[in-house]
Amino acid sequence: MKLVIIDYGAGNIxxxxxxxxxLGYDAVLSNNPEEIKAADxxxxxxxxxxxxxxxMLKASGLDTLIPTLKQPVLGICLGMQLMCKxxxxxxxxxxxxxxxxVKRFDNSVKVPQMGWNTIANLxxxxxxxxxxxxFMYSVHSFxxxxxxxxxxxxxxxxDFASALQHNNFYGVQFHPEKSSTEGEQILKNFIEL
Amino acid sequence: xxxxxxxxxxxxxxxRTVKGVNFVNxxxxxxxxxxxxxxxxxxxxxxxxxxxxxxLEGRKTMIDMVLKVAEHVNIPFTVGGGISSIADxxxxxxxxxxxxxxxxxxxxxxxxxxxxANKFGSQCVVVAIDxxxxxxxxxxxxxxGSIPTELNLFDWAKEVESRGAGEILFTSMNxxxxxxxxxxxxxxxxxxxxNIPIIASGGAGTVQHFVDTFKDGKSDxxxxxxxxxxxxxxxxxxxxxxxxxxxxxxx
Lengths: 193, 251
Fold this sequence. Notes:
Chain A is α/β, with parallel strands linked by helices.
């Protein structure tokens, strides 16, 4: 099993690498297109601001590579958002893998949403052995709208898509690597897809 | 629904927990990694590590500790103490910390909040504020509460929010160490004036104090040290009691 975490300078990738290590897998950090293409599974992480993260992706040519990948790809947090059509954050054009727009929470709730919330309407093998309404840890100010590609939803001011799937592409808004044993189960499921 | 968070806080000096931790079933109560693992197992939602090392050597040991915590613990954690630059934060985040907490360095140079938020995102920037109520006014203090500033708590909190802070950790010096409850009036005012999460700190003594700070103080999270370290309150029991009081928690 060759597991690659895309390293393009955005975010806390050490935690993801450690989470896989706890599951018994060595994940490699890479921005090398050949190495990414050759992986069995690809993790696309991201923390921070959308437009600057997209700039870093473009600078390394990864923006054109990622949508062409054939193996299972898992976007996490901002990684998932960048796989969407667009983001209100910095008026960013996304990779367009998921046909959905990313919007900002309105101020009827505290922004960012920070902490543990439940995921429901689970609709993918990614959530095998994960119970409906399991708690996941998230930190985000922007969300993907609920859409036909939603494989999990969460409620915070509105119902939004907390996970998405399109063919071999998966995305989760929450941080499975920081979401205790049930989060680790999701990472395990991804490896076993 | 987004749940209220319970956050144990560990004081770290030269890579070891200090101020006393008396935890049952723990081989080495001074080892922060062991303690962090126990807290994660027992239902803590997040952890805060406060570095009180005064030496450069102690700071380096802290980085090693952060790496080990990130390796072995599967819940988020914040690191605070002595952070004053982008470089300080960069190394902590790269070592696996989820958030950093800044305090005096933000008061001395408020632009630091903007710089960190722009560089790393607001989600990882916690601004810790220590304040004391003097003649009815909440005054921000530095150096663990020993040095008063000119700043008013609410004005300062509003300012750091506008500069990009993602969260406020408010410690009431009047309540800290008293075990008489959190400063709920000030907390509620913070929560109503700001639109970022507020962590209550200082004064936890009983389960009821946590109920009160979530209800009356409108806090998003509550932080405590000794009541958890000495087993006076078990996190599981606390969360069950909160749920009985219709406060949403992760159980």
